[in-house]
Amino acid sequence: MFNNGMQGSIPMQPTPVNPLQKHFRQPKIYIRLPSGGKYWPAGSIEMPENGELPVYPMTAKDELVLKTPDALMNGESTTQMMKSCVPNIKDASVCPSIDLDAILVAIRIATYGETMTVKGTIPNTEIERDYDINLVELLDRLQQNQYPETFKIGEFTFSMRPTAYKTFTDLSLLRFEEERKLRQINDNTKMNDKDKLKVFNESFQKLTQLTLQTVVSHVTSVQYLNEDPVTDPNHITEFFENVDSELFEKLQKYIEELKVAFSIPEFDAVASQEEIEAGAPETYKVPVMFDQSNFFARR
Question: N or C: which end of the chain has fewer CB within 10 A?
Fold first, then answer.
């Protein structure tokens, strides 16, 4: 007698629906990415037809992840939190730099509300003051950013792209390690000057290479006049290693200008009469410095 494979089998039980599901978090706001999803690799994000991504508030787990030092250093906590709060993002590590601030500000609004208080010292004084930032206005400004696709220097045309979040964090970590090593060498009284100089030169070469990698990470192709554009990353790297320093410095300066243009903008503040009497100007710019300790904290 043949066994048809059905005898003794246990029917699959359907997973019971959680009766608390109706109380799960819901999207608080919807955002349009400055990139429009353009620089995200295939499969890394699901773009709705209307281009608006739902943003959920953080969970208690998300807040705990943001307090893990190692995960903060390598960016893992940020990518986990982004995927949790913006489920359309499937791979947050490839998030283009121009989208990052807009996403983080949107998550902050969804979790803690539309305003945020930051501290700052008034120029020409030692007075510390609290400033309330309207995050909705800030998000509107960030969403209007548009990334330039090309940059020309003489006969060369460079196709540009924003750096992916993982590339940025990896390069930043490497730079941090080399700079930390240089500080340790400088403070090491037991190491002789010859050994110090050797290690210093090695670190300097690595930092120089990191600067080159940072620039190359923004370039997708190099074209001279009407010749075919070169897209091979190795060829582009070799080009920058051997090109006139003036051309490299112009491109590096342009990338720094882009970084400033796409950073959180300063906002205008007006001094009180008392602050003016203490030496403050009537109006001044307040830099907005966000970090994990104040940006994703209730207070």
Answer: N
Q: Which residue bears the tokens 């030496």?
A: 279
Element (H, E) at 97: helix 97-112
Above pLDDT 70, what percent of the chain? 90
Binning the chain into helix, strand and coil, the percentages to the nearest 5 are 45, 15, 40
Q: Yes or no: say if 135 and 108 are a contact pair by the CB < 8 Å rule.
A: yes
* Interatomic CA distance for residues 188 and 4, integer angstroms: 76
pLDDT at 84: 95
What sign has the CA pseudo-torsion 85, 88, 94, 97?
Answer: negative
Task: Tell me the CA distances in angstroms from 81 to 60, 255, 299, one per residue in order.
Answer: 11, 28, 19
User: What distance lies between CA 240 and its chain's CA centroid?
Assistant: 25
CB 97 within 8 A of CB 168: yes
Structure letter (DSSP) for residue 86: -
Per the prediction, the chain carries an average pLDDT of 87
130: helix, strand or coil: strand
pTM for the whole structure = 0.82
Residues written for the chain = 299
Residue 139 CA neighbour count, 13 Å, CB half? 22
The strands making up 219-224's β-sheet, listed across from edge to edge, are 150-153, 156-160, 219-224
DSSP state of 164: B
DSSP secondary-structure letter at 161? -
Give the closest residue to 57 by CA, choosing from 125, 6, 106, 98: 106
Tell me what pLDDT residue 69 has: 67
